[in-house]
Amino acid sequence: MSQIKHDNDAAKKMTYALTIIEQHPLATLVFIDANNNPHISHIPFHLSADERYLIGHVSNHHPLAKKFKAISGDKGEVNLNLVFHGESRYMSPNDVAPCDRKPQTVPTWHYSNTHVVGEAVEIVDTTDKYQQMVLTSAYFEQNQTTPWTMDKVSSTAVSHMLNAITVFKVLITELKEIKA
Asked: Which of 82, 84, 100, 133 is 20–30 Å from 116 (CA)?
């Protein structure tokens, strides 16, 4: 099993990187698809309780779902990269206090992102898929006045949903906070 590598071993940096994931869960997903072409899309994720995995799902028509189907007889892992985009803003030299401004002060962009390198594995067991979707909806509905839950729809609707999506987990093998 891979160990999480940090750009700096400080727990504070790791905590901040995970905070970006929690506060900005829509990630840019990058991987090589089943046709050996780079694919980029945007998928929401949430951390597992132990913070070792990211949980996500896509439509069965998504290139990642097709990649899982193409490798089902192989080791079953898809190597991928995720970028979680935190706060960002333009920084004008005029934003720097005159006493701190140097002659070479130029416009720039300040940003804070988290980069994840990981190994994705499809969750195929129907009970496990259901449980992950319960956790996913609970996570994303947590701030709603009346959270939507899976038990609010018929078992037929749940079955159709589970048959139409590919649920997967990403083992985090590398986690980096990137900021400027």
From this structure: 133
